[in-house]
Design goal:
Lipocalin, 124 residues, mainly beta, 13% helix
Length: 124
């Protein structure tokens, strides 16, 4: 009887500690492949560089920077808590309160658009 009680208690503790990630296709590691910079009217190829955005729960990591995000309808709001080095290299032109329009999102690719640039990603 004691074994059953301890087993049930262990299962209950394990189940209560898990956090569910409800980000859908947005969650995971994204490799930045292209930046279309509106200020310079240029397209910057990033395929050969390792520039990643990692999204899990309500946290985002962009390069070495960390922050929080909210995905609301067709918008992604990013607020960096620890700023990243060279933010423009990651397509992050505003580290305080960035807003991106989600132009496209699937299991394999994502396109985000801000007032500064359009960013193209592939799931890694």
């Amino acid at each position: 009887m004691k074994k059953i009680i301890f087993l049930l208690l262990g299962i209950a503790l394990f189940a209560s500690c898990q956090k569910e990630d409800d980000n859908g296709d947005l969650g995971g590691n994204w490799k930045l492949t292209q930046i279309e910079d509106f200020a310079t009217d240029s397209i910057i190829d990033k395929r050969m560089e390792d520039r990643f955005w990692a999204i899990q729960l309500d946290l985002i990591q962009i390069g070495k920077g960390k922050g929080r995000f909210q995905h609301v309808n067709d918008s992604l709001f990013v607020q960096m808590i620890r700023k990243t080095d060279e933010p423009e290299e990651y397509g992050l032109y505003d580290q305080e309160n960035a807003r991106y329009g989600v132009e496209h999102l699937s299991r394999k690719s994502m396109v985000l658009r801000s007032q500064f640039a359009e960013l193209t990603f592939r799931k890694f």
